[in-house]
Amino acid sequence: MRRVLYLMRHGETLFNQQKKIQGWSDSPLTEKGRRQAMIVREYFIKNKINFDGAYSSTSERACDTLELVTDRDYRRIKGLKEWNFGTMEAEHEYLNPLLPYEDFFVAFGGEGELAFRERISNSLVKIMKEDQGEVILAVSHGAVLRQFMRQWAHTSKVDQKERLGNCCLLKFEFMDEAFKLLEIINHDYSAL
């Protein structure tokens, strides 16, 4: 049976505005971030997309985004948290190395890239195996979306090299325990 996962990045946060590294550290949604989430909510309503199950990272910014997008009950999943950047958390983004990060953050007490990717993939596969609903929403983080795309690049023809912005949606098909990226949905938030 073909099922669908919408994997969504949270709305803009204070740290996003301030250009701070934000992994396991957290900061609140900005007014713009809340309005971004409401645009996505309207997209789901307009397209008659109803969720059978909803999940969020345990980070406040992801939970707050999900609560704006849908009124459904949801489960908080630790495995959907952002990359752990160790002591680089809340530092200015100019301290980030050039991409790809690989295992750069391990030296600062953070996660290695492949360990992070495996955590994300295992969490989302588990969600889809346990929740037999046809349409599932998971709200998470930018690096989560990117690493999950990389994990399933071999099954997908859809790609985006540019940054995955706040409230970006990745629509995946899930069948035979494999994901296939069907669509990347970027709304225009330039007027916000």
TrEMBL record:
<dbReference type="GO" id="GO:0005737">
    <property type="term" value="C:cytoplasm"/>
</dbReference>
<dbReference type="Pfam" id="PF00300">
    <property type="entry name" value="His_Phos_1"/>
</dbReference>
<dbReference type="InterPro" id="IPR013078">
    <property type="entry name" value="His_Pase_superF_clade-1"/>
</dbReference>
<feature type="binding site">
    <location>
        <begin position="9"/>
        <end position="16"/>
    </location>
    <ligand>
        <name>substrate</name>
    </ligand>
</feature>
<protein>
    <submittedName>
        <fullName>Histidine phosphatase family protein</fullName>
    </submittedName>
</protein>
<dbReference type="InterPro" id="IPR029033">
    <property type="entry name" value="His_PPase_superfam"/>
</dbReference>
<dbReference type="InterPro" id="IPR001345">
    <property type="entry name" value="PG/BPGM_mutase_AS"/>
</dbReference>
<dbReference type="GO" id="GO:0016791">
    <property type="term" value="F:phosphatase activity"/>
</dbReference>
<feature type="binding site">
    <location>
        <position position="61"/>
    </location>
    <ligand>
        <name>substrate</name>
    </ligand>
</feature>
<dbReference type="InterPro" id="IPR050275">
    <property type="entry name" value="PGM_Phosphatase"/>
</dbReference>
